[in-house]
Design goal:
The chain is mainly beta. The chain folds into 4 domains: 80 residues, Sandwich (Immunoglobulin-like); 92 residues, Distorted Sandwich (Coagulation Factor XIII, Chain A, domain 1), CATH 2.70.50.70; 87 residues, Immunoglobulin-like (Sandwich); 252 residues, no CATH class. It has 6 helices and 40 strands. β5 and β6 form a beta hairpin.
Length: 565
């Protein structure tokens, strides 16, 4: 303890004396350029990532190291006289160079990079590998490989294709087999030798079998293509198909597996309304390298209605997988939330949502009302009066004054990113009527929609009786601006449990009203157009008590021209 106290007193005295001096100074450190005195080892195999220890002066502040003019990684600066760099595969034979803010130093002697002879252990190659499948090559000095080239036996030297390298170390490299036209191929390796790229000889390259999974399409089950419909082909190796073409036009692929592929029939230039069209059906496969014609000529029909199948939109939560919540059956476009203010419903946004005097009764001019295409969305809600149940509802934009403030156009939960921060109505008035399968007439109509047993939606095919308050025989005494999954998916979504890929088979009739809305004594007299929504699948994701991260997949069939009463 006494020694400890003495040391404290001595330190205090030193501080006092220093403070009492007229002049004090602290020796300044003056930076100097680095100096290299030696390094070890003096050589390395390219690709081995060999640590090289350098001794010298002023090494602590070195910012850059090079071997043979190629920059290498600084592993550690041990002290001002010792540091370590890594002779990676970028290194070349030549001087070791160090750089700091003051200057540059070069070693007196050269560092030597030796280039190994690459070898593939042919005995460890599989007998066959799938084209576009993974292939592991084992051997020596594999870390130095820059490219793996696969050349079909029917190709000329230099016509091989580069394989994508997935992973690599000193003993193996894993690649994706590229496209080849033959069932056997040779494998060569490219690497750097000094500043030159060299390749192992093709004539001595190991050979491997390549399984070409050529698509085999069954005879189509359909005899007619309907524009807008999702159509399915079956067969083998269909997951190799990269494009489906109808009359040369790319079709959107809705789903795909090895045995089944579904696509949406596109509108082809030259098609006319009706059944008098002929077209071809073809596929591209193996990344568009090869193609085949499935049918030279097929009848194609353009119906007198709009068909949008395989549509998926998302509920309102800001943390949703995608902020794509709005769909217009008029345009067929799925709208991202950031387009709502400018493209979907600018009339509502520019009027702060004050476009209805009451629920589903517009208060804007007829011209403004008609300037907005009809659209709808889905919203996740808690069931009233319960802490556990929740549901999904399909909504018309003029139905609720509180919904739009729950939708965001950026994934940030702040008021400035809400569609309508203070809430408000949307412009078009829509109503939804679930077709109840327990009512024979409604079930028959729903089945007609599921099977698309009609070619037109108009007043003759789906008559409106204003006095009897029916549409196509379905009673609609009081049109509703929303429809809840409690009705169209009973028992499927009743609590907060996530349910992915839930199959739903619900058909809803949609009524689109003119600028008079639905509050008049005879609301059906105001119907402009009708359509149908066939809900097929739901990914039910409850968050914070409501399924607001859910997505819904459905088909839409929509009237092309207004009713003529």
């Amino acid at each position: 303890m006494k020694n400890y106290i003495n040391r404290i007193l001595s330190l205090a005295a030193a501080v006092f004396l220093a403070a009492g001096c007229a002049e004090t100074y602290v020796e300044e450190y003056v930076a100097e350029a680095p100096e290299i005195e030696s390094f070890t080892p003096t050589s390395a195999l390219s690709g081995d990532d060999t640590p090289v220890v350098i001794t010298g002066q002023h090494l602590q502040a070195v910012t850059k190291a090079m071997i043979g003019g190629a920059e290498v990684r600084i592993l550690e600066r041990v002290s001002n006289t010792r540091m370590t760099v890594v002779a990676s595969r970028e290194a070349r034979s030549g001087k070791i160079t160090l750089v700091n803010s003051v200057g540059t130093a070069a070693s007196a002697s050269d560092f030597t990079v030796n280039y190994p002879v690459l070898t593939i252990n042919a005995a460890e190659l599989p007998e066959k590998v799938d084209m576009f499948g993974r292939l592991t090559l084992k051997g020596q000095y594999m870390a130095v490989i820059r490219k793996v080239i696969v050349t079909g036996t029917d190709a000329e030297p230099g016509e091989g294709r580069e394989a994508e390298i997935l992973s690599q170390d000193g003993s193996e490299v894993v690649v994706t087999v590229p496209y080849v036209t033959s069932e056997t191929a040779r494998i060569t390796l490219r690497y750097m030798e000094a500043d030159n790229e060299v390749e192992t000889p093709l004539e001595t390259a190991p050979s491997i079998g390549v399984v070409r999974l050529v698509p085999e399409v069954d005879e189509p089950a359909f005899s007619n293509l309907i524009v807008g419909r999702i159509t399915t082909i079956t067969g083998k190796n269909l997951d190799q198909i990269s494009a489906v073409k109808v009359g040369g036009e790319n079709a959107n692929i809705a789903s795909q597996s090895a045995t089944e592929l579904s696509f949406t029939v596109p509108m082809v230039e030259g098609f006319v309304e009706g059944a008098g069209n002929q077209t071809s059906l073809a596929i591209d496969y193996f990344g568009d390298f090869e193609s085949a014609v499935i049918k030279e000529s097929l009848p194609a029909t353009v119906l007198r209605l709009k068909i949008w199948e395989g549509i998926t939109t998302f509920c309102q939560d800001v943390g949703c997988i995608r902020l794509e919540s709005f769909f217009s059956p008029e345009t067929g476009i799925i709208y991202h939330n950031n387009r709502w203010r400018t493209e979907v419903d600018p009339v509502s946004y520019n009027n702060d949502g004050k476009v209805c005097s009451a629920n589903n009764v517009p208060s804007v001019s007829e011209a403004d009302y008609n300037s907005v295409n009809p659209y709808f969305y889905f919203s996740g809600v808690k069931a009233a009066g319960t802490a556990t149940e929740c549901s999904i509802q399909i909504m018309g934009p003029a139905t609720s004054s509180s919904q739009f403030k729950n939708f965001f156009f950026e994934p940030i939960k702040k008021d400035q990113y809400r569609l309508l921060p203070n809430g408000g109505y949307g412009t078009p008035v829509l109503s939804f009527r679930y077709l109840d399968p327990s009512a024979p007439a409604e079930k028959a109509l729903a089945d007609k929609v599921r099977n698309l047993e009609f070619e037109v939606i108009d007043e003759a095919s789906f008559p409106i009786d204003v006095e009897q308050k029916t549409v196509a025989g379905v009673p609609i005494a009081k049109p509703a601006g929303s429809s809840n999954s409690v009705d169209w998916a009973p028992g499927i979504f009743s609590d907060k449990t996530e349910k992915l890929d839930a199959e739903v088979d619900a058909v809803l009739m949609v009524l689109y009203f003119d600028y008079h809305g639905i509050a008049s004594a005879d609301p059906l007299a105001n119907v402009k157009r009708i359509g149908f929504i066939h809900i097929t699948k739901v990914n039910f994701r409850p968050v914070s008590g409501a399924p607001s991260q859910s997505d819904i997949t459905y088909n839409v069939y929509w009237q092309k021209e207004d009713y003529k009463f």
